[in-house]
Amino acid sequence: MSDNLKFFHLPIDESQWHSAREWRITLCCVFGTLIFGVFTLIDQLPILFEECAQGDWSDGIGHFFYLLITALLIYGGVVYQFTRAFYIRRRSKTFKQPLEATSRNITDLTVLVPSFKEEYNTIYQTLMSAVFQEFVTKRLVLLIDNPPNPADPEELKLLQLARGIPTEIRDLLNPMADYIQTQEQHISRLSSADDKSRLIAETFEACGNWFADQAAQTLNNGQDSHTNRFFAMEVLLSRAYTCWEYAVKWEEGDQEVGPMASAWDLLHSWFEAEISSFERKTFENCTHASNKASNLNSYLGLMGNRWSVTRMNSGERQLHMDGSCDGNQVVEEFDVPDSPFVITLDADSLLLPYYAKRLTDDLNRPDFERVAVIQTPYSSIPGAEGLLERIASATTDVQYIIHQGFTTWNATYWVGANALMRKEALENIAYSFEERGFKMKRYVQDRTVIEDTESTIDLLQRKWTLWNHPARLAYSATPSDFGSLLIQRRRWANGGLLILPRALSYLRGKSGFIQRLKEGFMRLHYLVSITGVNVGLLLLLSLPLTDSVGSFWLPMTAVPYFYLYGRDLRLMRYARNDVFRVYALNLLLIPVNIGGVLKSLQQALTRKKIPFSRTPKVTNRTPVLPSYILATLLIIVQWIFGAYWGFNNGYPSQGFFAAVNAIILGYAVFIFIGAKDTVKDLFRFND
Predict the structure, then answer these.
(1) Is 686 buried (19+), middle (13-18) or exposed (0-12) by CB count in 10 A?
(2) Who has the most CB within 10 Å: 251, 333, 340, 349?
């Protein structure tokens, strides 16, 4: 085990941001950016006014749009710096999981894991991380969205493996659950307090050994990866160490461990869970729309009722609420219990064992009655081996800081990889619709492909709020190749503009100008930043501009942003020069993000929903679409010509800027896609 764990990367230590020094550094950068921005305006506005006064409208309009684009870029930098400052403030209280048992307020919840053509290990580890949630009563449901009758042998194998995982996990847990139950019954026959303590210690010792054995099997299964190592260490071995620590304390009679009842609650919570699966596509009267929201909605609509399954003459199966089968032959009956809380968890994510308990404890606080969604914005699974995966992970980990800062100004967005939701709130935003002649119910909206962002506005309009718990408790996989990353990031870029009018309508309805301004400053940035930054940067580097727009102060506005970004990467144990690689990746993603924006505009014009593109999570490389390769190469060529034009027409600063970015983008193609794969994808060569 030690040979594998020597490559293990520890999760990010957030205590590094809990310091007065980081707070002062952030404030200095904020003030620096604002001061440089003011100096830029002082420098540029007189020139703009003079151009307009002289009737030089072509230069004036170009100058105006140039300043508008740079203002959008500065806006993004300021938002990041503000959110970093707010994140540091939120770190004023530490959230270390105590050894002693937490309150015995056991919360009932349902965990929904939507899955589409996922590989075995991905589903298994996600479900196991949900199983080991402490001090909660839980029902786990794997929502299998694979085609139910695939013709492809590989797809059939994935489907059969997915269907078998719930039974496999139950068979794995049942012996330990029975053992704990037997030990608890045996302790009631003991009269000595010392004997009872020793028996509890023995039980914890056995459970610790079981967790350690499972970790060893995970590390020695022939699939050495950073995800395997993280799962083994943070989900399995962490529980082994906890069990052994409890065992020692119970053996020694330490009073810090709390009452015996809490010890048994903890032991039972690790190994007792209802685990099942549900396939909506096997029922004719469930929605078959191809997106994650529809997969979740199908099961949410079943909760709290008893259902009968009938088979029609055509062979199709249908679901009927108990007593409404209309004389059709019932082939199966089952109950779907309701629960006050629901966790949605993507099948490539891992939860730390105290995720559910901490979040439900928050929701049960007196001042949290109107919190509909609580989450810990996901972090990337640490230790990625590939360069692209590592740099993309860095951008995810920085986004965590931004989302934590949003919460300070009441601008939280639901980030869909994981969330704990109040079922009452979902019922509040649900509405009925019809598909293929059947009446159905929609809880999570799917008008856009970013269902979590869209549903956020629905909740806000009905006076619910959202909250980010200030600790890293959930981790998700990052695409390991550019083809998969392209699909993911294009989907993220598609929808913000469509949701913007509803967000503006919500903000107009809020009372209090200052509160509206603060929330809007953050919330609107989340919706427009991808459009503004990517389109703006492309235009900035593509349009020929005169030297009248040049200013010493303008590039200085970006220095505090890049300094803090690089500082955060170093605090998160990334390499010092990874901030340069992040910039290179962002240039490479310009056509990808603009492609997502164009999809939003297409939907707005045609009023037809854009198909949901799922991020592939397979070990093989996903080819890059030739159109994106071609667009990237054309951008490089255009920037090279822009540099040539700038140097030859007496605008060296613009020429230098274009040349440097062309070189960086070429470097990004080389290191993130590869020269050979670029040619292969462009012409679709076969292996």
Answers:
(1) exposed
(2) 349
